[in-house]
Amino acid sequence: MLPKGPAKKVTIFLNEDTQHHMGPLYESLLTFLMHKGVAGATASRAMAGFGGHHQMHTTKIELLTQHLPIRVEFIETAEKVEELLPTLYDMVTDGLIEVQDTVIVKAAMKEKHKAEPKGPHEEKRGTGKLMRIFMGEGDRWHGEPLHDAIVKRLRMMDIAGATVYRGILGYGAKGHKHEQGFLHMAHNLPVMVAVVDTEEKLLKATEAVEEMLEEGLIVLSDVDIIRLVHSRPAIEAPDARAPAK
Prior knowledge:
The protein is of the alpha+beta class. It has four helices and 16 strands. It has two domains: 5-104, Alpha-Beta Plaits, CATH 3.30.70; 121-230, Alpha-Beta Plaits (2-Layer Sandwich). Helix content is 20%, strand content 38%. The strands form six sheets. Strands 4-7-1-8 form a four-stranded antiparallel β-sheet, covered by helices on one side. A four-stranded antiparallel β-sheet has the order 12-15-9-16, covered by helices on one side. The chain has a two-stranded antiparallel ribbon with strand order 2-3. Strand 2 and strand 3 (23-24) form a beta hairpin. Helix 3 packs antiparallel against helix 4 (199-212). Mean pLDDT is 80; it is low at 60-65 and 178-185.
């Protein structure tokens, strides 16, 4: 990881079709920088540009997409850049290399967490309630889709989980048909939110949802819950015969 403080930013401008050892030069540059332990490098493809030949290249016209500009950029310490520049100078036979002073204010990288080994499946059984909430896709609650607002409320109530289903055809108590029409245009398609949890939790959730639902349907059903989870492998206890350190 790069240390905070003064550093160098190197930018290399070249053409997309510039070759190096039978391959694109920008790919060779990135490979070289990676093998040399550079902290990170990025190649960006421009949409339009011109160079020393004053010939415009753009993605708007197919014939002009040749020679589109590529920008390769990386930041490293001054010592590292000084080490790399001679090779970069030799590799870039048609282009521009720019080196600027810069300052690294923050360099952060999340550590990769090793996945814990999983044990065999463990089956948990019990009884609970299934709550299904029916509404229209166009229903709103304080300016946002009602189904989004309901899911947020359920999360705040520590409900185990909720799933939103979007229908493709249906009708409600008024007998109005809702369907996905021509060119996939939706006409207030039916939406259902399904929730499974304990009876105690869902009775409280029902009261909260009722306050939000102006027009719709809430259904509660008894369910048998079968849950499969990975059990963690047991950690072996230290050998009692081993001497204490």
